Amino acid sequence: MKLLRRRTFNSMKKRLAGLYGHDRVDELADRLYLLIGRYGLSPHGGERGTADIPQWDEKDAVLITYGDMVHTDGESPLATLKKFCDIHLSQAINTVHLLPFYPYSSDGGFSVIDYREVSPEIGCWQDVRKLGQNYDLMYDLVLNHCSAKSKWFDQYVNGVYPYADYFIEEDPSDERLSLVTRPRPWPLLTRTETSKGERHVWTTFSADQIDLNFKSPDVLFEFLDILLGYVASGARIIRLDAVAFLWKELGSTCIHLHETHEVVKLMREVLQTVSPETILLTETNVPHDENISYFGEGDEAHMVYNFALPPVLLHALLRGDSQYIQSWALNLPPLPEGCAFFNFTASHDGIGVRALSGLVPDEELDWIIERVNEREGLVGYRSMPDGSKKPYELNITYRDALADLENPALGVRRFLCSQAVMLALKGIPGVYFQSIVGARNWTEGPQREEGENRDINRMRWDWKELESVLEDGDRDQAWIHSVYVSMLRTRNMHPAFHPNADQKVLETNPSLFAFVRSSVERPRKLLCIYNFTEQKQFFPMSSVAYELGRVDLYRDILSHQTFQFDANPNVALEPYQAIWIEVGERA
To answer: What angle do CA 79, 80, 84 make, to 5 degrees?
Structure first.
């Protein structure tokens, strides 16, 4: 007990008692103490809220990628990915999010067979470590479910302890199941033959993804061990996949339950004890207010996905009208100290639309879906309690979602404008591999025998083919990649882009979107202005005189142009142009 700070350890004991009862708390606390001791305690002591390690700064930018996104003969895909990052993304990104790189059976890696191994098809742990020599790493902890082909589930089927309690059995005739929130249109329960006869197990996402029973402390400790193993192997950020569905209680919606939040808080405290520099990120594709509840009071996730950003930004740019994104951004609540948004526009899943609830009228979502269909995109649905279905996600590359069907060049400019918004907003940016190479829809993906809608944005690349595309200056993809990398390198050199630097959203005419970022320590400010239309627009500098003070000269750090204020009282923006105007000691 001497090694653990008493306050933190007592807090963890209290959470264990709340989850599993006071009669087991001493046994479980001893078990937790031994687990933490096995991985070694941080010299920083682990007192929650007192670690003085810098968690992040303006240089933080994350590449979101599969381990086998690019491949070549004669080397593992993970080695090829490292080569791609070293050649094309040097000084642009500092962190690589490896989407599940473990052996799996479906769902692009999110149906995990073995959490502690690297899939031999993409490499080995040595490849992961080599990637980690040049970049910080982010791993997925897929903790709501595992593969039906896993050893755990096989042992459950055969009645082997402790795996017999690892999964959730329910009676399909129980009417209380109708209250459960459903993210997919498939059956909630899946019939399974076991050594004890026929059982129906809980399967939130698919019949191949069997939900785990966190009411069993053995499951919790299994995942605490995996969590600490990931940290020991080099993970700086741990992403908790689909964590909102973790705890099940019949008679409830089984989403965002109190116990789920307690598990996340417990994981936060364990990390604070063992590795206070490790960042916990929750992935909850739900309405915005529900999503940000995972910050807790600064005692839960360090970061949450900014799920509202991709659809509300898409709507604004397609409409040429920023009124809804302005309203959303203006009303973002202050985050707890030590917390930040994980900003992104595209991911391996698509563009989630649940976060639009309450932000735009329902008819505007219908309008977006029409535009996605015009651009050969697909739509995923979720089941409602009455048996109906509602849109859940848009399956399309973000570039094609913003394509201009009559003027492709304008579509490219509109896409780059969207990325310039995401990169500049308060938080840490996550850049999906397909976006940074300007990928189009992979329409063949969903049409394969094993394909699904989301494969439209999961194309894998041959090294030589990708190199040819990115070296061809006449191609739109080469231009997108060049501009994107340049924006990232510009971004990570400016202190006003620190994830916790102040952000002041400006009320402008709906053709424009604008905000001011102010550095944390030195007096450095950036005025970020975006034209959301295909017509030239003008931004009056006099409107920000109060925010910026007297400005004689201003400089756009994207174009490197310097302007005289008296000669140019209005900033002119070309169609879909983004401008980051520096104001302060170096303007």
So the answer is: 120
239: left (phi over 0), alpha (psi -120 to 50) or beta: beta
Which one, of 263, 296, 537, 272, lies nearest residue 417 by Cα? Answer: 537
Contact status, residue 433 vs residue 427, Cβ threshold 8 Å: no
Given pLDDT bands bounded at 50, 70 and 90, which one contains residue 61? very high
Which residue ranges does the chain devote to CATH 3.20.20.80?
A: 62-148+212-495
d(CA 434, CA 165): 40
Answer for the pair 559, 581: CB distance below 8 angstroms, yes or no.
no
Catalytic residue among 241, 321, 400, 455: 241
- What radius of gyration do the chain's Cα atoms show? 24
Encode pLDDT of 164-177 as tens digits. 999 999 999 999 99
CA atoms within 13 A on the CB side of 482: 12
Residue 386 burial (CB < 10 Å; 0-12/13-18/19+)? exposed
- Name the least confident of 118-122, 304-308, 500-504, 522-526: 522-526
Domain with CATH 2.60.40.1180 in the chain: 497-584
d(CA 280, CA 271): 8
Q: How far apart are CA 157 and CA 198, in angstroms?
A: 10
| Tens-place pLDDT, residues 363-398 | 999 999 999 999 999 999 887 877 788 899 999 999
In this structure, CATH architecture of domain 497-584:
Sandwich (2.60)
What CATH homologous superfamily does 62-148+212-495 map to?
Glycosidases (3.20.20.80)
CA–CA distance, 160 with 98 (Å, rounded to integer):
33
| 241 noted as active-site residue | yes
**Cβ atoms 87, 437 nearer than 8 A:** no
CA 74, CA 472: separation in Å to the nearest integer?
Answer: 25
Q: What is the pLDDT of residues 408-425, one digit of tens each?
A: 999 999 999 999 999 999
- pLDDT at residue 374, as a whole number: 97
Contact between 220 and 27 under an 8 Å Cβ cutoff? The reply is no
**pLDDT at position 98:** 98
- Distance of alpha carbon 570 from alpha carbon 576, whole angstroms: 17
Measuring CA to CA, which residue among 281, 586, 268 is closest to residue 427? 281
With H, G, I as helix, E, B as strand and everything else as coil, classify residue 245.
helix
